[in-house]
Design brief:
Blueprint lengths: L11 H14 L12 H8 L3 H13 L3 E4 L3 E4 L1 H4 L19 E6 L8 H14 L3 E6 L6 H11 L5 E4 L8 H9 L3 E5 L9 E5 L1 H14 L5 E4 L8 H16 L9 E2 L4 H5 L9 H11 L4 E4 L2 H13 L9 E3 L16 E4 L1 H17 L7 E4 L1 E4 L13 H7 L1
């Protein structure tokens, strides 16, 4: 289904997206005629040009619209040629001849490379004669993920690529889809099932890359800071595992006091108990007091916020404290020189996802394939060597 499920009141750009999608579903647009312009959207909905443009850009990112320079935006031929509504009730025992795959993401496509992953997957599927639609859940409790999966169980689709928000992958619903003969692939999380394939980045390996880099720079008191407990999501557990085992292999003691896993986004904004402006400031101050010289963060946003907090406290980054992120997201580029982080190859994630979806068409209930895509180190201006440390290994890693 192109139209999203009902939920809490939507922002204005989402209202416009929903309106356009409804008109597409009802056949009001032809693929060879441009759809309404930004000016018409502004007039119809009483919004600014920025809001209208965001709605159009979001639909282009999803592959639903495409733009011709100097002419306007058009409905994708693959979307237009679906003669039946994408979601309609079918007999679960019937065989599907659908050419449409559904992708369920927990975030906007602008989040941490999802756009690159979807575009790569969509390109591969189009070459094979299939199309893809997108569902964005954007809810902390993952309830919309359940809602979308329930809808897709009743739909005539070829399969589902599911990127769950939490550790709960709604296995019973995925099983239902597979038992209907539909292809199912998990994205970002290793599959807990022997017959559900998955594609994920090497979060453990990425953490090890960062730790080996910091150790090579001479750091020995290294902290790990996260916004969620590692049991909330397997990927987070893998990142913490990489930190712990890297210290162990280096012959260093793992200090539980240097592992902070409670800095949720809301909690980070709260004032620190020590009188600090925020919990981010308080966390940095507490770790520095324990002799920490480097911090490995769960993601780039945390690394950015810690770096800014340190500089507000006149703590020199990286001279007094080196800071690493994870994901090489937009946050990594918001500081001069960038944040030291690791890059996930989201294009490969998308390509492998498409390949597994197509394989699943022939044998949805078979031995699963678990594909793990390597990461690579990206060095930035937030890390440096401890004075006097042997950095020969550092130079080798930087190459």
């Amino acid at each position: 289904m192109l139209t999203p499920a009902p939920g809490k009141p939507s922002p204005l750009y989402q209202v416009m997206i929903d309106d356009i999608l409804t008109q597409i579903d009802e056949g009001e647009f032809s693929f060879n005629q441009p759809i309404c312009t930004e000016n018409k959207l502004m007039e119809k909905h009483g919004v600014s040009r920025i809001t209208a443009r965001r709605a159009m850009t979001e639909l282009e990112n999803r592959g639903i619209l495409y733009r011709k320079r100097g002419v306007g935006s058009f409905v994708s031929r693959d979307v237009y040629q679906r003669k039946q509504p994408p979601i309609h009730t079918v007999n679960s025992a019937s065989s599907s001849t659908s050419k449409l795959f559904a992708f369920i993401f927990p975030f906007s496509l602008h989040h941490s490379g999802l756009k690159a992953a979807f575009q790569a997957a969509n390109t591969a599927l189009l070459r094979a004669g299939y199309a893809a639609s997108i569902y964005i859940t954007e809810d902390e409790a993952n309830t919309r993920g359940r809602t979308f999966l329930n809808q897709l169980i009743r739909s005539d689709i070829a399969g589902v690529a599911y990127y769950p928000k939490t550790a709960d992958i709604h296995l019973n619903l995925l099983n239902h889809l597979i038992f209907q003969g539909k292809s199912v692939v998990l994205i970002d999380l290793p599959s807990p099932s022997r017959y559900i394939s998955s594609v994920s980045s090497d979060n453990y390996g990425g953490s090890v890359q960062l730790m080996e880099y910091l150790l090579a720079l001479g750091h020995r008191r290294i902290a790990y800071v996260a916004g969620l407990s590692p049991d909330a999501r397997r990927t987070l557990g893998d990142r913490l595992d990489g930190y712990v085992l890297s210290l162990h292999r280096a012959g260093l003691t793992v200090d539980a006091d240097l592992i902070v896993t409670a800095l949720t986004e809301d909690f980070r904004r709260a004032p620190g108990a020590d009188g600090s402006p925020t919990q981010v400031h308080a966390t940095a101050r507490a770790l520095l007091a324990q002799g920490v010289t480097a911090i490995l963060c769960e993601h780039d946003q945390l690394a950015y916020e810690l770096t800014v907090a340190c500089r507000e406290m006149r703590v020199r980054v990286p001279e007094q404290l080196s800071i690493c992120g994870f994901d090489n997201s937009e946050w990594a580029g918001m500081l001069p020189g960038g944040i030291t982080t690791v890059q996930q190859n989201m294009e490969q994630v998308g390509q492998h996802t498409a390949s597994l979806l197509l394989e699943g068409l022939h044998a949805p209930l078979s031995q699963a394939r678990q594909i793990v895509v390597p990461t690579h180190l990206v060095t930035g201006a937030t890390t440096c060597a401890i004075p006097g440390a042997n950095t020969e290994q550092t130079e080798e890693i930087s190459l």
